[in-house]
Each structure stands twice: as C-alpha cells, then as structure tokens.
Design goal:
Number of helices: 3
Structural class: mainly beta
CATH class: Mainly Beta
Shape: globular
CATH architecture: Beta Barrel
Strand content: 35-45%
Oligomer: single chain
Strand order of the largest sheet: 5-7-8-9-10-12-13-14
CATH topology: Lipocalin
Largest sheet: 8 strands, antiparallel, barrel
Number of strands: 14
Distance between the termini: 26 Å
Length: 223
C-alpha cells in the first residue's frame, strides 16, 4: 500500500469526503456520507453473557442468542423492532449500479475492541444484478477494487470475487481475473456477511471471521 507517510497524508476522518481519480483521468470522484449516522449510536452496558450469531436449526435465520441463560424478552424485542425483509433493497437499491457504503468502524470478535477504519474503504452492493465491489481508495495515488457476485439468503450475503482492478495515478486501471469462471451460487463456504441492521443511513454486519463492521451510506459525486 506504500509507505506509512504516504498513507497518512490521505487518511481523513471517517465521515469526511474522499476523492480519487476516475478511469477517464479528466474527472475525479468523491465519496461523501449520505447522512450522518451518529444519532443512532447509544451507549450500552456490557453483559457477562456474551452474544453471538448463530443459525436457528428450524428456519435457518440468523438470530442473536446468549451463550448463558438467553434473555427471551430481549430477543423478542429485537425481532419485533427489526424487520429484515427490506434489508437487501435498502443495502443494494432496486436498480443498477446499486448503492455505496463507506466502512467506518470495525469491532473485533466478541466485541472485545475496535477502531475507526483509517482509509477510504467503500463497498458497492447491486441488489438488482447481485454484484458486489469492495475497494480502497487513496486519492490521486489510485485505488484497488475487488469485484464479483453475491447471493442473499436469510440475511446472509455470501460472495465470490471474480476480478481485481488496480489504478495507479493517471494511468488507466489494470484489470486482473481471479479465475472464478464457474457460475455456481456463492454460499457460506465462501466469505459472507450476516446483516443485523440496515437502514438508509447505517448498516451493521458480522463477517465470517467473527468481526463486526459498521458502514455509513455514501454517494458517489463526479466533479
């Protein structure tokens, strides 16, 4: 990714706008937060019983359960207030090219710690075409993106990356295939996210490794 000094010069605050050169080199593209999500953040008391993501054996839906003495009242409250039926459309829109989300914060497994993500990492989800793009953007230095396809089932978004695009300075992007030629549908043997919350401003999901990520909706602005 280059030297630390080079990266630090382009590491802005999590909700500031970020700019990189487009493939045409005559335009630049900025990612700006769609809405500020901090009004959703509330402090919470830690619990002795840790929570984890699991799949119910009957309906295969991801739910939150306690590892010690499940609190039925809390679980019923979560299910009543969060309707996942519209998660995919909210995340990826109803038509291509979908919607873009900026990674803001990552938490470690079992929420033992976390940090704000220092670079401009943006994910694009296209619900209509079932496509995903995951990129890191470094202003005029360039960008690196992974693109591929995804599947959606019961809040679980599984994906397979098919190609990489690398852009350095004013040069045209270099596209490299990853050899994923088969048309099989991605499943939980591939990388995946389990989505716990999505609205028009923020999204929260847990990855296959057990870490939790928080995104802010952003828009792509060409100048």
């Amino acid at each position: 990714m280059g030297t630390q000094a080079a990266l630090s010069s382009f590491s802005l605050s999590p909700l500031s706008s970020q700019t990189f050169l487009s493939s045409s080199s005559s335009q630049s593209v900025s990612f700006k937060p769609f809405l500020l999500p901090f009004k959703h953040v509330n402090s919470a008391k830690s619990s002795k019983a840790r929570t984890r993501a699991t799949l119910d054996e009957k309906d295969k839906n991801p739910i939150l359960v306690k590892e010690q003495q499940p609190n039925q009242e809390v679980e019923e409250s979560v299910k009543a207030k969060v309707d996942p039926s519209g998660f995919l459309e909210t995340l990826g829109g109803s038509e291509s090219p979908g919607r873009t989300w900026m990674l803001i914060f990552t938490a470690e497994k079992q929420l033992k710690g976390g940090r704000y993500f220092p670079l401009t990492a943006v994910q694009r989800f296209d619900a209509a075409a079932r496509r995903i793009e995951n990129g890191v953007f470094l202003g005029p230095i360039g960008f690196l993106t992974f693109e591929g396809r995804f599947s959606w089932k019961n809040r679980i978004l599984s994906f397979i990356f098919e190609q990489i695009r690398i852009k350095i300075g004013p040069l045209n992007p270099l596209q490299i295939g990853l050899g994923q030629k088969d048309d099989r549908e991605p499943n939980t043997k591939d990388p995946f996210f389990i989505w716990f919350y999505i609205d028009e401003e923020i999204a929260v999901a847990r990855g296959r490794s057990g870490g939790t990520a928080f995104w802010c909706r952003c828009t792509r602005v060409t100048t």
